[in-house]
Design brief:
Largest sheet: 8 strands, mixed
Radius of gyration: 17 Å
Shape: globular
Order of helices and strands: EHEHEHEEEEEEHEHEEEEEEH
Number of helices: 6
Strand content: 25-35%
Helix content: 10-25%
Structural class: alpha/beta
Length: 259
């Protein structure tokens, strides 16, 4: 399974410009024939324009589905379309949509844990579901940025079987070492590939860190970006998953009756 992460420097509060840029970058990534392409968190508006958030949010993900879903079908590639600020029924959510190669929606996930230090909980609604989905026969799950600090969320997916954990984020440069440690831990403890597509650039006074990265189930770093806009790729050897899980029997040795 070949994975591509589009580490995007989006324009703050300019959805038209960001949609155009995202589609151009997705086309560029697809030239290397990946199986899955990821975008970062809230790429349609950046993180996040408080004064115009509701006005500039996608309308129930209609634009994402129309434009990015159509592109997935045209390019015959799976797209984890990062997340977008999304106005649903008058409430704004931080929503991730995933498309298969046919351009069909296979997963819609609203960010579960909202980043209170930046007031995200005052502008967005909390998600209420955690879903797994399938891409090319592999079991996958998506979480968004701050979610990675809550290992119980990922474990809920992994005990049911998880091959790829996709993390889409707008993680600040000052805390990139923490992101790297957390992503590696999620890969090792859940015996899955952990893929993070982060943003870069600046919004207000916050500098976002880039350093998108992909870890294998043993915690080995397969690839890592720098701190500017770029696309990274990794070949994920999925044939090793069963051997790893049979060698260290984390899931059969669990004691859920105690916790």
């Amino acid at each position: 399974m070949k994975i591509a992460c589009v580490q995007m420097d989006m324009a703050f509060d300019k959805p038209d410009e960001n949609f155009a840029s995202a589609k151009e970058l997705l086309r560029e990534a697809n030239r290397e024939k990946p199986d899955v392409i990821l975008l970062p968190e809230t790429w349609n508006v950046g993180f996040f324009p408080k004064d115009t958030l509701r006005e500039h949010s996608d309308d129930n993900c209609r634009r994402v589905i129309s434009e990015i879903g159509a592109l997935a079908k045209e390019l015959n590639v799976n797209i984890v379309a990062g997340s977008v600020a999304n106005n649903r029924g008058g409430e704004v959510y931080n929503t991730s949509v995933t498309f298969n190669r046919q351009g069909e929606v296979v997963n819609v996930y609203d960010k579960t844990h909202l980043f209170s230090p930046m007031g995200e909980h005052e502008y967005f609604q909390k998600g209420k579901n955690v879903l797994r989905f399938t891409l090319d026969g592999f079991s996958c799950g998506v979480i968004i940025c701050y979610d990675i600090r809550f290992p119980e969320l990922t474990r809920k997916m992994s005990v049911e079987g998880l091959d790829f954990l996709f993390v889409v984020s707008q993680w600040p440069k000052v805390r990139v070492p923490q992101l790297k440690a957390l992503l590696r831990a999620r890969a090792i403890e859940n015996q899955c590939f952990a893929v993070c597509c982060n943003s870069c650039g600046k919004a207000g006074s916050t500098v976002y860190g880039g350093n998108s990265m992909i870890f294998d189930p043993l915690g080995e770093l397969l690839c890592e970006a720098g701190d500017s806009q770029q696309i990274i790729f990794a070949e994920c050897e999925t044939g090793n998953l069963s051997q790893i899980r049979n060698t260290i029997n984390v899931f059969s040795d669990r004691r859920p009756e105690l916790y």
